[in-house]
Amino acid sequence: MIGKWSLTALAFVAAPVLAHHGVAGVGAAALQGPGAPIESAASTVLPEGGVLAYLKVDQASFRKFDAAAVESDYARFSMLGLGYGVTPWLSAYLFAPYNEKIDEPGGLDSRGWADVSAMLQLGFKYDQDGWRPTPANESLDDLEDWHFSIFAGSTAPTGSANYRLADGSIDPGKSLGFGRPAWSLGMTATKMLSDRLTLSVEASTYRFRPYTYASGERVQFGAENRLGAALAWRAVTDSANRFRLDPVLELQFLDLGRDRVDGTGESGTGGQMLYAMPGVRVYWDRASFAFGVKKPVWTQLNESSTQQGAEGKERYRLIFSASLLF
Amino acid sequence: MRRTLSFLCLALLGGAAQAHDLWLEAAGADFLLLQGHRHSAHAGAELVAYDPARVRDAICVDAGGRERPLAVPAIHPVRLAGPCSVLQLRHVSGFWTKTPWGTHNQPKTAVDGAVLASWHSEESLKRVGTWSPAAARPLGRGLEISPQRDPFALAVGDKLSVRVTDEGRPLAGVPVAYAGETRGVSGADGTIAIRLRRPGIQLISATLDEPRIDGLADRSLRTATLQFEVAP
Asked: Which chain A residues contact residue B1 at CB under 8 A?
């Protein structure tokens, strides 16, 4: 189950925060333009010809339930990303995740580069003249309009799906790849509710294909459906130093399907949960940094008592991202 | 990136360059050129006197696009003969030199001592009184803003696309302000959309900052303002 997070992270590239087209770039206007979520995707697309370098670290610390057993301790998902503005309304991204899944002492850890992924994001907007692709140049007044994006991505099986743990076994949940491409599809909506408050919404789905591991086990991870909403408040703006600070409150609902092993639904997988994440996003010059603390505030997990180390069983997750626009 | 940086710099300079608004007020069929803060977002005297000798090149355009030059009387406030569908004029306040002891309305070559900054300031004002296709076309005389659609069909809250031109050619990367607040820069085709936020007289301004090489001032600041009215 943990293995799925590597894909999930792909869509959570709050990528284009910095990346506004024309005026909304990192200059003066960005200091007053729309805010962005900590983790969820935003509607902003990269400026044509713009390059975005991206780093994200997501560290999950798990609750422990059995002092006598070796349980999952923490997982750290790091990701490097590169984005390019193909047109003012189309951005392309490449991501390379590095996953670490660490058990308590005596357990079986895994770490290494996981499946790389690619994503395309199509931006569009709605205003008094109707629907249209995101234009190359937008004023602050344009940025107040509803903006949307559709994104689609796929992984490539570059990670080791048959990663052997220290005892020689294969645990699909700790593998570094899915074995076959997995795809994602989502959409975002963003609206400045005032000149300081921005609402961002994301809905997305992630689908996995069955893969037969070297152990002979045929596993299909359950589908992931996500719905997220974030409010960003422009609290501090220092134009002289081109600095901006936004407190952000983000809610993420996650619906996980049950995994299937050899065609049969796997016990102790899947469920629903709601995360709350307060955080802060800072803009400085051409860079943006975000930090948030994410906690599950409501869960309804299948066979919940058996899901230690899975989504919904975290004590907290620390999310950090940094992006730089060239 | 270069564009956004220049936007920041120009926005700062632009504010200094246009301390007062200029606008045209209907007086029967004619128009009075007024200056002050009546329509400004910031505080200041409602009306501020100006030197009528600074007003030049007034042009009246009728609905058919026919232009006629207007006589500019040397009496404050300047009264210009209407009716006009579009009326454009220039207000040239000339050279300004800032020193530690004050700001002088002279080129820097005429000022003794240390010079902190110097510039030449020129403003153009275009009032669109009625809509016609001619109103969307630049007159082609210097820096200018032209509406790209009928502004009188818009209500408060709507956006108006305007085009910034210099000598009739679209100009990109020029900061554009509404009610004294910079809202963005013109795009590659010179256009930018501005939201109309209050009823009454609308003033949309663009400021172009360029270096001078004649030695009389460091910079040339040209400001163009588009004026029209939106019903409550």
From this structure: 25-27, 286, 325
d(CA B89, CA A237): 38
pLDDT of residue A29: 44
Q: Which of B7, B188, B193 sits opposite A27 (nearest CB)?
A: B7
Q: Which residues of B touch A140 (CB under 8 A)?
A: 183-184
| HSE value, Cβ hemisphere, 13 Å, CA-based, for A44 | 37
Question: What is A193-262 written as a DSSP string?
Answer: SSSSEEEEEEEEEEE---EE-TTS-EEEPPPEEEEEEEEEE--EEETTTTEEEEEEEEEEEEEEPPPEET
Residue A125 neighbours by CB under 8 Å, 6+ apart: A131, A132, A133, A134, A135, A142, A145, A146, A147, A148
User: What's chain A's average pLDDT?
Assistant: 88
Q: Do A23 and B7 touch (CB under 8 A)?
A: yes
CB-CB neighbors (< 8 A) of A144 in chain B: 195
- pTM for this one? 0.87
Residues above pLDDT 90, as percent of chain B: 76
A209 vs A24, higher pLDDT? A209
**Which domains occur in chain A, in start order?**
2-325 (2.40.128.130)
CA Rg value for chain A: 20
Q: Is there a contact between B1 and A25 if contact means CB atoms under 8 Å apart?
A: yes
Q: Which of the four pLDDT bands, split at 50, 70 and 90, describes residue A16?
A: very low
